[in-house]
Amino acid sequence: MEDVVIVGGGPAGLTAAKTLAESGISPLLLEASPEFGHKACGELMAENLYGFSVSNFLTKGVVERVHEEIAIRFYDETFVVSRRGGRGLISKLRIPTRLLFINRKKFERGLAAKARASGATIKMGVRVFKIERGSDFLVINDEIRTKLLVGADGALSIVRRFLGLEPRDLAFAMSGRVKINSLAEEWRNLELPMLIVDPGKIADRGYGWIFPGRTEANVGVGIFDGHERFVRGLWKTFERTLGIEDRGEEPETRGAFIPLSLSRKTWVDNVLLVGDAAGMVDPLTGGGLNGALLSGWLAARVCEEAVRKNETKGTLKKYEERWKSHFLTSYLKSKLLSRLFYSFFINRKKLTSWITRHPILGGSYSSPNPHTHKS
Ligand SMILES: Cc1cc2nc3c(=O)[nH]c(=O)nc-3n(C[C@H](O)[C@H](O)[C@H](O)COP(=O)(O)OP(=O)(O)OC[C@H]3O[C@@H](n4cnc5c(N)ncnc54)[C@H](O)[C@@H]3O)c2cc1C
Asked: Which of 16, 196, 357, 371 could form an S-S bond across to 191 if both were Cys, CB 3.0 to 4.6 Å?
């Protein structure tokens, strides 16, 4: 009988596995894919968010670039949101942290190596297709018995479905890495990660992005009322906007769903949900790496306590209390902002252009790259 089985070896599951293993409890992690870091991702994360720093989970060589600012291009205007506060009121909305452009493959491999070195067993290429209840244990795929189960299996989680909870509000996004030299001149010299909001041209209810690394950039596009087929069409337009197509480079692109609403429950009896499986994503940006790490870490701490005390229900309950104290306020603010933004401001070009250009309100720049703007 296993103490803890983790389903899914993405950022949330691997963080849980590493944390548990380092505390002396050896979990079994089952990952459907044969390789780490296979999932589509923009690879940008905050260094410190929700009162939780990710530094302990980043191994050498994972961070490719560190940013203190992010540029947002709204139609033809670009403004910068920084840690120090920018030129206009909008830009004064500070980002609370440094932003890290990471290499996701290296990130997941590094976490897995640390988890294994501390005693976790990680089985790759094992898809969980069946979960059943025993008296006070669970049976996975007819053969593995476990006292506790952590669902870290992403947006379409089988563990969450086992709990009778369907995913809600799914967005869909696509991304890929391209050589910086293959971008059109206008986008090639970006110093900052950039979000591009341009309905009609990029996405009606969503945005595109360019996150520059040293030699490659991560580019992507996502929409918030996510029909996969629709985004795949948008991708072609986005590629043309960035000039990629003209240079004959066909980036390897991947797409995936992003849950924009929290799961109604994140804990039932001896089962916990973490990361995308729990819907721990910022609903304004669709960013879920920080929520994945935070929830993976919190779940592991609670599982450790439950195993040591041999007491499940009362202990696992603490998981929900803890993640709420870190994450809930920020989530609710983002939810409100996303409603305002994607239903109102995004399609009011004149109003938003006026606000972003206004010297006191927006403080925007008319060049896509504010750091090379001459005037
Ligand atoms: C295109 C795109 C770009 C994004 N960019 C960013 C970004 O820049 N910054 C950011 O913060 N967030 C970003 N996100 C969101 C981020 O990728 C997710 O929030 C994050 O990956 C969640 O981690 P996770 O471990 O919970 O789930 P996942 O990363 O989805 O990992 C789940 C794992 O479970 C495995 N699995 C699934 N089902 C089973 C099963 N039945 N049995 C065994 N294993 C299973 C999967 O193979 C997968 O490896 C992006 C998402 C997309 C789609």
From this structure: 371
Return the residue whose CA atom lies nearest to atom 27 of ligand 1: 154
Tell how far the Cα of 74 is from the centroid of ligand 1, in angstroms: 27
Residue appearing with tokens 């197509």: 245
Span 37-94, pLDDT tens digits: 999 999 999 999 999 999 999 999 999 999 988 888 877 777 777 776 655 555 556 6
Kindly list the structural domains of the chain, giving each domain's residue range(s) and its CATH number in brackets, ordered by start: 2-45+56-62+103-168+260-339 (3.50.50.60), 85-94+170-258+344-372 (3.30.9)
Whose C-alpha lies nearest to ligand 1, atom 15? 288
CA of 41 to the centre of ligand 1 (A): 8
User: Residues with Cβ < 8 Å from 374, sequence gap 6 or more?
Assistant: 367
* Ligand 1 nearest atom to the CA of residue 278, by list position: 26
| Distance in angstroms (rounded) separating the CA atoms of residues 170 and 173 | 10
Please list the alpha-helical segments (H only) found in 203-312. Answer: 228-242, 289-309
